[in-house]
Specification:
- With 428 residues, the chain is of the alpha/beta class.
- Helices cover 51% and strands 13% of the residues.
- It contains 16 helices and ten strands.
- Strands 7-6-5-8-9-10 form a six-stranded parallel sheet. It has a four-stranded antiparallel sheet with strand order 2-3-1-4, with helices on both faces.
- It is elongated and about 95 Å long.
């Protein structure tokens, strides 16, 4: 009996890539390195240093440097992942035997970016401030690196996804930040009622901390820009203190919350030692929310001084989702990470879609022939066989199609054509 050949879709004439572009992330965070190490890496991490290490022909086509209060990371679009990772490692001044850097590629890199944007990888789990940092990171790179490159869309999409990931995890962004972690620590170690708290800085972290403390403590605001200090102090019914009076203030307050962007500590060991002499044994709590640090870590050894930095606050920022919520989050992140990779490899998606359409046409054709030979099958039995065949095809295709996404464009097209021809029976 002659079998009529099924009709198969032809491969799309969509765009193809001459070589595969990998999404790569190389970085360190509060889970893989100490604050001392992260500060050392931060001092070396810049677009200028990366450009110099990459040479006249850098191994990436697009690159974004991301620094937050607990991480330093480089995201790159590259056809040479190993060389790119080595260039970044060299730029960071990290030797090959130091296990402080993680290197993730493609789907794992995309999933990591989504986790970062959602606050899942933050010191304060579930924070929303990092989402804006992800959204804005590409715009901070010099135009000579890449203007409006492919990573712009990837970072923007990760930022768009983030709120829904936080909602699935059950996070409440109203109390998820390093500032809230600091408040939780303070509430555990001393009564805050009627305490005098100096807030150094007027940025978002400083404002969050000050507003959380105001119902109980007296607030003193210090900032180099005194009008901004007055504005924040007025909104909290507090007091703005001139920058020059900071050494004197340290002798009077009970708590200092420092959250400013500085290159070196603004509260020095010498300054705190002088304040300790005037405090006559009264303890002082120094909470350093800065990266780089605002308070000289040497202050920790002074009598009566309790210093806590970002690493010390980590236990107070933990807020893990329930196991059920975490499973839903992981499923959603896997799904979204595949979409991010498809943004970078549209040609791969076209090729994979052509292969799957051909496989589906073959499945339907074979299924119809089988049903014709089994006319007594009930509708329920037909549905079971239909579902079984679909699951088998999906299982057989999953591994090969995922592998196809990482095959260079021209070779991938050849492989897909060979596979499609095989499905059609053209190689028999």
């Amino acid at each position: 009996m002659n079998r009529e050949a099924p009709t198969f879709p032809h491969r799309s004439d969509g765009p193809t890539l001459t070589a595969v572009a990998h999404l790569l992330v190389i970085g360190t965070n509060h889970r893989t390195s100490s604050l001392d190490t992260r500060e050392r890496i931060l001092r070396k991490a810049s677009y200028a240093s990366l450009r110099m290490a990459g040479g006249r022909r850098p191994p990436w086509s697009d690159l974004v440097l991301l620094t937050t209060c607990n991480r330093v990371e480089v995201y790159a679009l590259t056809e040479a992942p190993a060389r790119t990772a080595e260039v970044v490692r060299k730029t960071f001044g990290v030797s090959g035997d130091e296990p402080i850097l993680y290197v993730l590629d493609d789907g794992d890199a995309a999933a990591h970016l989504i986790r970062v944007a959602s606050g899942l990888d933050s010191l304060a789990e579930g924070e929303e401030q990092v989402t804006a940092q992800i959204r804005n990171a590409p715009s901070r790179r010099p135009t000579r690196i890449r203007a409006n490159g492919p990573l712009d869309g990837v970072f923007l999409q990760a930022a768009r996804i983030a709120p829904s990931i936080r909602a699935i995890a059950g996070f409440d962004p109203r109390d998820a930040s390093a500032s809230h972690a600091a408040i939780r620590f303070l509430e555990a170690v001393l009564p805050l009622e009627h305490r005098i708290v100096a807030v150094i800085g007027t940025g978002k972290m400083a404002r969050i901390a000050a507003k959380a403390l105001r119902p109980r403590a007296e607030i003193r605001v210090v900032n180099r820009n005194h009008p901004r200090a007055r504005e924040l102090a007025k909104s909290l019914d507090g007091e703005a203190v001139p920058w020059a009076d900071l050494p004197t203030l340290l002798a009077d307050v009970d708590v200092v919350l420092a959250a400013t962007a500085v290159r070196r500590p603004l509260i020095t060991k010498q300054m705190v030692r002088a304040a300790v002499r005037r405090r006559k044994g009264r303890p002082i709590w120094l909470i350093d929310l800065g990266f780089p640090r605002n308070v000289d870590p040497g202050c920790r050894g002074l009598p009566g001084v309790h210093l806590l930095d970002l690493d010390g606050l980590a236990p107070w920022g933990q807020n893990p989702p329930s196991p059920a919520a975490l499973a839903r989050v992981d499923h959603r992140i896997r799904k979204e990470s595949k979409r991010l990779i498809e943004l970078l490899r549209p040609a791969a998606s076209v090729d994979v879609a052509a292969l799957r359409k051909t496989a589906e046409a073959v499945r339907r054709h074979e299924l119809e022939e089988a049903f014709a030979r089994l006319p007594d099958l009930s509708d329920e039995d037909r549905a079971i066989v239909d579902k079984l065949s679909m699951r088998l095809v999906n299982r057989f295709l999953h591994g090969p199609t995922e592998r196809l996404r990482s095959v260079p464009g021209e070779r991938r097209a050849e492989v897909v054509q060979e596979m499609v021809a095989g499905l059609r029976g053209e190689n028999e």
